[in-house]
Design goal:
The structure holds 2 protein chains of 2 kinds. Chain A is of the alpha/beta class. Chain A has 5 helices and 5 strands. In chain A, α2 runs parallel beside α3. The longest helix of chain B has 52 residues. Chain B is mostly helical. The chains are: A alpha/beta, B mainly alpha.
Chain lengths: 129, 366
Amino acid sequence: MTETVKTRIVVADDDLDILDLVVFKLNQAGFDTVAVTDGVAALAAIEAEPTRLAILDIMMPGLSGLDVLRNLRANEATKGLDVILLTARARDADVDTGFATGANDYVIKPFSPRELLHRVNAVLARGDR
Amino acid sequence: MSAGRTFLIVGAAIGLACASAIIVVAIAKLRRGRVAARSRAMLAPYRHSLITMVSGEDDDGQAREALSAVPAPIWVCLRPSVVAFLPKVRGLPADNLGELMRAHGEIDEATRRLTSRSAVRRARAAYLLGLVRDPASAALVLPLLSDHVADVRLVAARALGTIGDPAAASGILDALRTQNGQIGLPAWVAAEALLAMGPGIGPVLQIGLASKDPAVRNVCAKVAGHGTYLSTVPQLRVLLATDSDGDVRVSSAVALGRVGGAHDAAILLRHTDASEPTVLRRTCATALGDLGQRESLEALAGLLADDDRRLAERAADSLVRIGTEGIARLREAAVTTPQGPSARAAGCALELAGLRGQLAVSLTGS
């Protein structure tokens, strides 16, 4: 019997409500999720096991989501990892900065969990092409 | 009594006071921790239902039903979690949270409190109704825009912005006016609330741009630019050229830079003339960069030698933002008269653009 390998997603947010919500939604959709509450733990979780996607809040203690993203893009092993920024920073300049830093998508809070799931699937599908 | 003994007694008293304070703080923290742990344990069975509902996975409505049926003592503990989720999600989950609040009588209670004698209660009620984002609440919150307490007016305006009903837009503009010596809403609060209401406020903005009150015209011009309300462009052109209020002219110039078209370059350029107020000239130079039309290249290059060095800097920055052709003009100015004022402004802008990585981009796109 073969066991299906679930797609691993790291979710980093210091807001436990958001963290619980995103992890629940992704688990319901069949993903393997790892929840962390800061940037340093996010990097550690991504480097610990092969990860397909990271969902990062921008404003986190220690390393911000953008710092984590810069680290990922600068590292040969993780530079191709898909990243979605999930943040309350909604100004045009913030969105520009997010994409310029290398995010694959940018979701603004308040957000729709259903829409987030669609975006996760879309980003993963783009990466598979 | 000797001085040494006095010091000893005072020292002992201070030490005792410090020790007591530490004990009190430790007990308070312990109690708070216990209360929080008890509250978490009590809420644990409901937390799963709440997350299920907020995630949009409550297809059969069981989670919502269970949460609507929780007894009052548990709802008191659960309520902060529900309220905490309200500003974090939108769409169906947000609607469900609103319905849950309604099922527990929170909306009715907040509606009652809008007329409370306590300003704090009125403000909190407006805040909650804003969080729930029920369009039916807009009409109830609207009267608080003329509340005698400034903070209540402010919370009401923000709540109306969050609710997002364009029907409340004219109320926000009315609240800007100073009445009976009291300043109405701060301009930025009104602008934020209007922007949050979305495209439906276009007609109200057009009326506001023709208002007799310069504060209203100014806010409408700002919102027109930031919210990309193209229908306001003809009025913005007139206000830039003729308004009696300097701030309104400046806001109109900024807005035209954002929403104007190719022929607005000539209009903005006209207002960089030396006869115009300094602030307006500088604003128009920046707006030309926002507009990004090549028709303004020549005139912006001419401004590099202007006596107003701030204006020259802004013109140089606008040339960078226009792209390849603008950068070529700057390079030209930097080498033609190396010691001249144009060269200094151009050199500085090119250096900054290089640091920002804009020069590499300009080689690949215009």
